[in-house]
Predict the structure of Nitrate/nitrite transport system substrate-binding protein.
Amino acid sequence: MSEHDTPRDDAPAWGSDAPEKSVLNIGFMALSDSASVVVAATQGFAEKYGLSLRLHRQTSWASLRDRLLSGELDAAHSLYGLIYGVQLGLGGAPATDMAVLMGLNQNGQSINLSHSLQAAGVTNGEALRQHVHQHEARLTFAQTFPTGTHAMWLYYWLASQGIHPLRDVDSVVVPPPQMIEHLEAQRIDGFCVGEPWTAKAVDEQLGCTVTTIQAIWPDHPEKVLGCTRAFVEQNPNTARALIMAVLDAARFIDDNEENKRSTAQLLSGSEYVNAPVSAITPRFLGQYQDGLGHTWQDEHPLRFHAGGLVNQPYLSDAMWFMTQFRRWGLLRSDPDYLGIARQVQQLALYRQAASALGIAVPAEMRSSTLQDGTCWDGSDPAAYARSFHLHALADSPAAAL
C-alpha cells in the first residue's frame, strides 16, 4: 500500500470514552478473510482510535480459542461457530460467556473434492452421493473445527445431496493451511475451508471446487471479531474503538479494486497468510475457476463491508448456527436461541461505532433463501432445526451420537 492509502488523521476526540487498554493482542488464522483485521493493525487504522494492535497468527482454531479464553489474546478473527460453541460449552472448552463485536466478512469459502474423485468422474453432488452409497470404503472429509462454520457448511451441503454427514462419511478436523498437504497425501477426499486454500488446491491440480458456500447461501455469514464478554465488560471503550478500527479498514478494502489488490498483496506476506498472491487475488475479486474448465465472475464475492451490510452482528445469523448445532445433535435440546444471541451479539456497541463513522446500521434480523429453497429469518428456530429430511437431533430415535 502506498502512502496515499494511509487513512486521514480525523479520529474523534472521545475524552472520557478513551480506550481503557491501548495495546491489544489480536489473534488470526492464515485466511483471506482475516484481511480487515490485518489492515486495521498494519495500515494506520487502529492508531486513529488510540489503539495498537499486535497480530498473532495461530496454528489452529483450537489454539486460538484457548488463547482467547486464557486472556493471551484480547480478541480475534474467529469462526462464528467457535464463539457460540464456547458460549454453549461445546467442542471441548468450558462454557464461557462470549461476545461477537461485528461481522468480518461474507462469502469466500468452498468445498473441494480430491483429484482421485475428480478422475473417477465424481465432480458434483449427485455423483458423490452415488459413489458414497455404492462403495463400501468410506470417504473422509476435512473441516476446520467441530462447531465451526466449515463443519456446518459441509454437513449442510452433504445432507442436501442425500449424504448423511455423521453416518455415511468420516469427518476430521484439519487447520486451514494444512488442507493442501492432507489432500496431496491422500489422507482426505475433500474439504471445506476458506480462501486461499481452495483456490490453491485448484491451481495445483489437486482436485476441483464442487461448490462455493455462497452458492448455498448467498452473502452467508462467516468470520466475526470475537472476544470474551468479560473483555467487553472491563473495556467497553476499547471494544468500541476496536470495532471502529476494523470497520474503517473493512470500508477501505471494499472501496475499490485497487484497494482489494493491494490488500491481497499484503496478505500474501509470510507473516500473514503466506500464500501466493496468485491464489489470493482472483477469488478476492470474485474471479473463480473450479478445476473442471469452468470460469466465472461470482455474483457474491468475498466482501468485507458493503456499506455496513456485512458488519452488523445479525441476531438471525447467530441463531442459524445454533439451529445447526441442534440439528446435528451437538445440542441435546433447544436453547433459548434469541436470548443467547442477544447476550453474545454486541449490537449496542456496534451501533455506537458504526454511527460514529457514519455507517448505516441494518435491522437486527435478516431474511435469506438458501440453495434448498428454505427461507431462514430467525422467526422459528426450533421448528427450522427439525425441518430437515436429514438430521441427528439428540431426541430423535435415529440420532447418530
